[in-house]
UniProtKB/TrEMBL annotation:
Residues 1-18 form the signal peptide. Keywords: Signal. This is VWA domain-containing protein. PROSITE patterns: PROKAR_LIPOPROTEIN, TONB_DEPENDENT_REC_1, VWFA. Pfam families: VWA, vWF_A, YfbK_C. It comes from Luteimonas composti. SMART domains: VWA (SM00327). Residues 197-375 form the VWFA domain.
Length: 570
């Protein structure tokens, strides 16, 4: 092998020497010789020929003594290989399920709404590739809120959202009940959306060089680019070892320029997310639009490894910008080193939302179909507080939202940050409750506990009282909405939407170990998933039913189906 390389190098070196000699010979040849020779020929003779022979021999000996590495001719640059993750280093925040609460001891439950969906699409990616999701990757509220349930919305933007409730027996235990709270934001027509000032903050580090990372990311942003208008502005900031500006604020109708800038991006280097975030906010401030949508879209696998890498410091950096009117959305990509924990925390700190994109179809769902709710915020710092009547409800458990819980006194504290609602967005929350005297309680009776006091006659028919606080964008003082949950909301059987939401919640619980499923097993979950498909224009519910079957086979240890991995693009 080395001899072959050496021979090639020697031939190249002799050829180079001959070219040099050829020049010297042309300069020194007498006029007659030059005239007699053919136009394309060089004649070397006499003492010069012998000198060249000696020189070639010396050159041959010198090259024979040189290491092959020094002789080998440089190969033309090849495209960098796709990044290969040496080990799975994905990171998820540890969480414990919300416990069952005794109403007589803690009648009030308070939490911030959540509009993220990244947990569901990320777990879907794992199941499609035949991998068992770690329990901490499963966030029940993000599973539930991935789907629409047809909650009714408000009639005008004067009240930016409407809250509805439904109470019915839990499908896994008819002795217990589910309370579903649905919130629907006012749906602003796309033609009426205000101008958008968007900064694409794109991770171009070496770890992004994989088909489901930077290539998919570029196509995802190309889908969003297709929706932009002349009044919109787009900037592109990238970061690897350092941050850089690829595209200054550019009108949205100059799509060729935006797409060309995206297409030029290549992955390489380490990941300095802190510098990238700072530059992105600087560009957002430069093109800031009063009364418009101002948002940074951070697309990354979250593997920050140089510069500011501490999650708390990055979170504080983003939180400092919250009051500037510039929100932050995080879009997760890839597998093997995906930092779900950090992506979710940054979105929370930046008054934005978090999604995970595993296919081009998901990119279209998040950045095209749901663009209005993703970008345009119509209500900020939305908090839910529900007070259960201990005369009618003995126990309750909030399903999911573990990292969104608030202290009781934080509900009315307008300095406490909470989740936002976008135009047309739905938010769904489920409580599992045990009615008094139903025999469905899970907590043992207290030896010294006092019996619950009967509710006053004015509230005897109320199971609970729902309160919501929110701020209009730009306001600092919150507004209050109140509505009771009465016997009029009680149904003998759950409606189709509640039944499907309960099935999704059960699926999430089963993936986390199945501690709250009562008599249900995987077969029950799969059966209900198929029976509650309802109106499914995008086949998302049908896809969910297939995922339940895949997970059931995986947990049972049977041979799972082995479809081809989902394509990055159709």
């Amino acid at each position: 092998m080395h001899r072959h390389v050496l021979a090639l190098a020697l031939v190249a070196a002799i050829a180079a020497t001959a070219c040099s000699t050829r020049s010297d010979s042309v300069a020194e040849a007498p006029p007659a010789a030059a005239h007699d020779a053919q136009p394309d020929s060089i004649v070397v003779s006499g003492t010069r020929a012998r000198a060249e022979q000696a020189r070639s021999a010396a050159l041959h000996q010198r090259h024979a003594a040189m290491p092959a590495a020094l002789v080998a001719m440089p190969a033309p640059p090849a495209p960098p290989p796709y990044y290969a993750q040496p080990a799975n280093t994905e990171r998820y925040a540890e969480r414990q399920d919300n416990p069952v609460r005794r109403t007589s001891e803690q009648p009030v439950s308070t939490f911030s709404i959540d509009v993220d969906t990244g947990s569901y699409s990320n777990v879907r990616r794992m199941l499609r590739f035949g991998n068992r999701p770690p329990p901490d990757a499963v966030r029940a509220e993000e599973f539930i809120n991935y789907f629409d349930y047809g909650h009714p919305g408000p009639d005008s933007l004067d009240t930016p959202f409407r809250a509805t409730t439904e109470l019915a027996p839990a499908p896994w235990d008819a002795r217990r009940h589910l309370l579903m709270i649905g919130i629907k934001g006012y749906d602003v027509p796309r033609a009426e959306l205000p101008p958008a000032n968007l900064v694409f903050l794109i991770d171009t580090s070496g770890s992004m060089n994989a088909p489901d990372k930077l290539p998919l990311l570029k196509r995802a942003f190309a889908e969003l680019t297709g929706q932009l208008r002349a009044q919109d502005r787009v900037s592109i900031v990238v970061y690897a070892g350092s941050a850089g500006l690829v595209l200054p604020p550019t009108p949205g109708d100059r799509k060729d320029e935006i797409l060309a800038a995206l297409e030029r991006l290549e992955a390489g280097g380490s990941t300095n997310g802190g510098d990238g975030i700072q530059l992105a906010y600087a560009m957002a401030r430069r093109a800031y639009m009063d009364g418009g949508v101002n948002r940074v879209l951070l697309a990354t696998d979250g593997d920050f490894n140089v510069g500011t890498i501490d999650g708390g410091s990055l979170e504080a950096l983003v939180a400092d910008q919250r009051s500037s009117g510039i929100a932050l959305t995080t879009l997760g990509f890839g597998q093997g080193n995906y930092n779900d924990h950090l992506a979710e925390r940054l979105a929370d700190a930046g008054d934005g939302n978090h999604a995970y994109i595993d296919t081009l179809q998901e990119a279209r769902k998040v950045l095209v179909e749901e663009m209005s709710s993703t970008l345009l915020t119509i209500a900020q710092d939305v908090k839910i507080q529900i007070e259960f009547n201990p005369a009618l409800v003995s126990e309750y458990r909030l399903i999911g939202y573990e990292n969104r819980l608030l202290a009781r006194e934080e509900f009315a504290n307008d300095r406490v940050d909470a989740g936002d609602i976008g135009a047309g967005h739905e938010v769904t929350a489920l409580y599992e409750i045990a009615l008094a005297s139903s025999g469905a309680g899970q907590l043992p009776a207290l030896r010294y506990g006092q019996p619950a006091q009967a509710a006053a006659s004015a509230t005897a028919g109320e199971f609970a009282h729902l309160r919501l606080r929110y701020k209009r964008p730009g306001e600092t003082q919150s507004r209050l909405i109140e509505t009771p949950v009465t016997r009029a909301h009680l149904r003998a059987q759950p409606g189709e939407s509640m039944r499907f939401a309960a099935t999704v919640a059960a699926f999430a619980d089963a993936l986390r170990g199945g501690r709250h499923l009562g008599q249900w097993d995987w077969a029950e979950i799969a059966g209900n998933a198929k029976q509650a498909l309802g109106d499914d224009p995008w086949q998302l519910r049908a896809e969910f039913a297939g995922l339940v079957e895949d997970a059931a086979r995986m947990v049972a240890g049977s041979e799972p189906a082995q479809p081809d991995p989902p394509p990055v693009a159709p």
